[in-house]
Structures are given as structure tokens and as C-alpha cells.
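<goal> How does this chain fold?
<body> The protein record starts here
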Amino acid sequence: MTTAFALRLAHLHAILYRRRPLIRTILNQNPSLLRLYETSRREWVNDYGIHAKVADLLFQQLHNPELYYQVLKDVRAYTFIHEGEDRYPHLLRQIPDAPPVLYAMGDVTLLKYHPSLSIVGTRTPSNMASRKLDTVLLPLAKEKWLFVSGMARGIDRMVHEMAIENNTSTIGVLAFGLNHCYPHENWTLQKFIGENHLLLSEYPPSIPPEKWHFPERNRIISGLTYGTLVVEARNKSGSLITADQALEQNREVFAIPGEIWSEQCAGCLALIQQGAKMVQKPQHIIEDWKIM
């Protein structure tokens, strides 16, 4: 059941999802969001320090009945989770710029599942990628580890499918709202994960994919677990952004080495040079989890 506070927060988030620091400012000054609909334009500017144009937008959209009923429909269609709830992931709460809200489809108990591992990699894997996954990840799948990845082409898709094929659990973190699918060829996979595992998004359900969403959502992929494994990555790739964010979050970074002439392996080799733990077998990951 959605509380009155959750509905107010979902409405605020639908307007300001691009301005997470502003959402936090408003919550810090008004934790219960009471008087959200009574606050005037002048109060938004004077009491909250909001720019006049943003205050106008906020006031207008808070009094837009179409948006209100769309938000009401969204929180009924999906599971709406905010930071103040016990079911909000503990590890994610610890990261810088944690998402104030999450929309979920599927089994939200997986947010508390351990052991779990975040896994990322290139959208154009080498012909050795499948063998690498079989060597390092398949034994973990058989031991019922949960795999977190980003529902992209290539490595992400291979990871989700490995989890499903081996009857373990997986979480797909989307760079768009739950009403959408990208890439389109993942529609069947995304639907299956939403019905049998878990899909997560920090965006309102109606928000389509945007280029800047993908590096932004990577902090959630790394933030959900104690460590991130990079399977294959080119230099300056999105997977390396995820690895950098994992380090900023004080999480472990693992990388599988590869051929020195392979573009798909250049990023992993660079990570290992910079101090990421080289992984050649599953025990290299398991031994760190035992310490954690």
C-alpha cells in the first residue's frame, strides 16, 4: 500500500528526477513533505533557495492533475521504494548520490540477497567472452550467487541469461523507466526478469532512455553489491565508469585479464595495472567475500 508521503515524494520526483540534489534539499527542510501542495512560488524561492524558473515549473507541475494521476497510476503499477524504508538496499544507501527513490518490478526481497556480485562489460564482446564467463561466473551461478547487471547488449545480457539458465537470481538495473525497453531485442528477457527476478530504475516509468542515463545508472549497479567484476572493456568505456564509481564507493573492483592485442580487453588490463584485483578463477572473488 502506498502511503501519502510516498505519493507526495513520487510526485516531487516525477518533476525533479533530473535534480536529485534539489530533492534532497527539499527533504532535508521538509522531511514529511507536508504542505507540499500548499507551498507558494515565493516560498519555493525564498525558503528553499530555488531558482524562480524552477520554482514556477515545480509549482505548476505540483498542481497538474494529469501528472498527479499518472504518478498515482505508476506507484500502483510498480513497487515504489524510497530511502526511508527498510526495504531500500542498505549498501546502496551508503553511496554518494544514492537515488532518493527506486521503481521496482519483480521480487524486491532480492535487494537483501547475499552473496551478490555486480558484473559489467562491453556491448561487443570477443569470441572468448563466453569462455571467460563459464570459467569465472558459472561456478558462482551454481552456488546461487545473485548477479547484478545493466540489461545492455553483450556482456550484460550474457550475465543475466547465465543466471536464468542456472536457476539463480539476477537484478537488471535500467537506464530508463520501467514502461520502456532498450535495446528492443531485450524485450523478452526484460519481461522475464521483471516477472521472475527483479528490474530496478531510478527514473519515473514513463521516462525513455537517454544517452546520459547510462553512465548515471552505473553507480547503482556498483552500489548494490560489495564488488564489481569487469569481464571485458575497451578503454574509455562505460564499464570503466562503473569501475571508477565502485572505487569511489569504497567497493572492490575485479577484472578478468585478456589478450594484450584485444581492444575488448584493454580496459581490464588498464584496471589491473591501476590496482584492480585480477580474476582468473571464481576463488579469487570468493576469498574476498569471506573477508567481507
Summary: DSSP finds 14 helices and nine strands in the chain. The beta strands are 79-82, 101-106, 116-120, 146-149, 170-173, 198-201, 227-230, 252-255, 277-278. The two ends are 35 Å apart (CA to CA).
